[in-house]
Amino acid sequence: MRKNKRIRIYFPFIFIFLILGILEARLYYLQILCHSEFAEQAKKEQENVISVSPKRGIIYDRNIKKLALNIPSYSLYASPPKISYPEKMAKKLSPILKEKSSEILSQLKKKKNFVWLKRKLSLAEKRKIEKLHLIGIGFIEEVKRFYPEKNLASHLLGFVGVDNQGLEGLEYFYDEKLRGKKGYFLVKEDAFGYKIPFATEIIQPSFPGENTVLTIDSNIQSIVEEEISRTLKLTSAKSIEALFMNPETGEILALASKPDYDPNLFFRYSSQDRKNKVIQSLYEPGSTFKCFTSAALLEENLVSLTEDISCDGPLRIANHTFYDWKKFDGNLSFMQMIQDSSDIGMIRVAQRMDKNLFYKYIRLFGFGTKTGIDFSGEEKGIVRPPGRWSLIDPSCISIGQGIAVTPLQMVNNFCALINGGKLLKPHLVKYISTSEGKVVEKNEPQIIRKVISSSTSQKIRELLRRVVEGGTGMKAKVEGYSLGGKTGTAQIPAPDKRGYLPDKYIASFIGFAPADSPQIAGIVIIKEPAGVYWGGEVAAPLFGQIMRRVLPYLNILPSKSLLKVDYPIEEKKERAFSSQVMPDLSKLTMREVIKIFSKIKDKELEIYFSGSGVLVSQDPLPGKKIKDKEKIFLKFKSS
C-alpha cells in the first residue's frame, strides 16, 4: 500500500523529467546538430543578394549637349515563398503593371526566393503599388536610359536593353566603356516579408560607366534632319539618307536617315526601321562615282581638263547599248563633259585605262573595304576583281553602275579627292572620359594613305565647282558661297534577277564647301522619289538648303565677291550699327544679318544660327554691350 503510494508520488516527476529529457535531446538535435542546416535555410528565406546595374556613361555631342542619359526608375520584385494569396496579388498588380494577371501569377508561383515582376517602373507606378500594402514584394531603385532628343540621331545612338546593356548603335559598339561595373547588395527581411530597416548591406559597390563625347554636332544634325524630313514629304520618297563630315579630320558632323525611330520606344519599330542605312546598306552610286573615275584619269595623265571628248551617242559595247540622259552634239571639253554629266563621254575616256589599273584605283580610294568607323555592322561594299569583269563592266563601273557602296564610303573617300589626296579613317567619338571628367581615350585624325596628288585634288575641286556654278548641280548654289559637287541618278538593281527595277531611281548629290578650302563635305541620297527623280532636280536643292543653314552656323562668312550688289540691307539706313553694342536685328533675313556681322573687324564672335526666314529672337538683346569672343544666339522663323 505504502509502495503504491510512493509510485503515485514519484511517477509525475519521473514523467516530467522524461519529457524534459526528450525535449532537451530534441533541442540539442535541432540547435546543435542541425544548426548549420537551419541557419542556412533561414538565411535563404531572410536574405537576398541582388545585383544592381551601374550608372551608364552619358553620351554627349561635341558641344557637350546630352544625347543619352540616365533617369531614376524602380524595379518590382517578389519573394514567392512569402506570398499567401498569389492569385489575388496578381489581379491587383495587373492593371498597374499593364501585364496579364496569368503572366504575373506564373512568376509568383515559381519556386524561387527572388523573381522580377517588372523592371524600370516610374515613380507614379511605384506609389500606386505601395498603396496596396502587399506582403512579399519590394522595389529596387535602378537607372533607366533616356534619350532627351527622342528621334534625333537615333540611327547613330542606338538603344539599350532592360539591363542597360547596349543593343544597337553606339550604345552597342561602346558598351564596354559605357556600362560600368555591376554592384551587389544584401537585402534582409523579417518573417513577414518586410525589409528590416538599416539592414541592407553592400557586398560590392557599382562603378559608373565612362562618358562618351561624339564628333556629332547636334545643331547641324537638327538642320540636316529638318531638311531631309521636309524633302521626304515633298518627294514622297521611300527614304532619305544624309552624311556630313569634316574632310580634314574625318570627324562625322551629322548622320541622318528618314524615316527614323524613337530609341526610348525602340520595341515599337522593326529592325529594318532601326537599321543605319548610311553605314550598313549598299547602293549603286551612279554619276557621283564619276568623281573617282576622273581622279584616276587625271592622276595617270590620261586626260587634260581642256581636252575635247566625243559625247555623241548612243554607244554600243559588246551586246549593250549606252545612252546619255540627254543628246550631246559633237565634242565637249573634259571639264564641260563632267559639268554636264555625259555618260558616253565618260565611258569613252575611261576606256584609256587598263581594267587592272582602274581596279587598282578603285581599291586605292577605299571601295570594297570597310572604312574602320567605330560602329558595328559596317558593309564593305561590292567590288568584283577584274578577272570577273565582263566586257561592259569597265564602262558600267566608270559611271557608277555594277559597283555597290555605302553612303559612308562615298563621302569618306570623296574627302580624299578634295583635301589634297589624304584618305582618312572616319570616326564618331571625339573622346571618352571618366565620370570625374578625366580623358582616358581620344581620337585624333588618322591618315590611312595618300591616294592622289595635291595638284590632282585641286583639279577635282575646280571640276566640281563648275558643276555647281553652271552644270547639273546649279540648284545646289548658295548665294555668297562657292560650292563644289556632283549629281547622281541611279537605277535600283533587281534583288532576285539581273537588270534593274523599272521606274525606280535613286537621286543623290555629293558636295563640299567652300570650294577653295573645304571645311565640310557631305552627301544626300533620295531613294525612290515620286515624280521627278533626277539628282540635279531633287537632291541638289536639298544639299544647297542644308549648306545655306550650316555654313553660317560654322562661322563661314560669305564672300563679298559672290554676294549680289542689290543688297536690301543697304536701304535700311535707320538700323544703327556699332561694333560695341548688339544691333537690332529683328525681321532681318539670315543673309542681311551675316552682312552686318561681316563689318565687325575688331572682335571675334561666335554666332549660332537656328531656323530659317526672318529673325524672331536674339541674345544678347539690342543695345547690350558685346565683347570679344561673345556668343550670339539668333533664331529665325519663316514669315
Quick structural summary:
The protein is α+β, with helices and mostly antiparallel strands. The chain has 20 helices and 26 strands.
The strand count comes to 26
Low-confidence stretches: 565-576
Helix content: 25-40%
What is the tally of helical segments?
Answer: 20
**N-to-C terminal Cα separation, in Å?**
125 Å
Structure description:
The strands form eight sheets. Strands 2, 3, 4, 5, 10, 18 and 19 form a seven-stranded mixed β-sheet that branches. Strands 12-11-23-22-21 form a five-stranded antiparallel β-sheet, sandwiched between helices. Helix 3 crosses helix 4 (101-108). 33% of the residues lie in helices and 23% in strands. The model is unreliable at 565-576 (pLDDT under 50). It is an alpha+beta fold and 639 residues long. It is built from 20 helices and 26 strands.
Question: What is the strand and helix layout of this fold?
Answer:
Elements: H1 2-33, H2 35-46, E1 47-52, E2 59-60, E3 66-78, H3 86-97, H4 101-108, E4 115-121, H5 123-130, E5 137-146, H6 154-157, E6 159-160, E7 166-168, H7 169-173, H8 175-178, E8 183-188, E9 201-204, E10 211-214, H9 218-235, E11 239-245, E12 252-258, H10 271-274, H11 277-280, H12 290-299, E13 308-310, E14 315-317, E15 320-322, E16 331-333, H13 334-340, H14 343-350, H15 355-365, H16 393-398, H17 407-418, E17 422-424, E18 429-433, E19 439-442, E20 447-450, H18 454-470, E21 484-493, E22 500-513, E23 520-527, H19 535-553, H20 590-598, E24 606-611, E25 614-619, E26 631-637
Parallel strand pairs: 2-10, 24-26
Antiparallel strand pairs: 1-8, 2-3, 3-4, 3-5, 6-7, 8-9, 10-18, 11-12, 11-23, 13-16, 14-15, 17-20, 18-19, 21-22, 22-23, 25-26
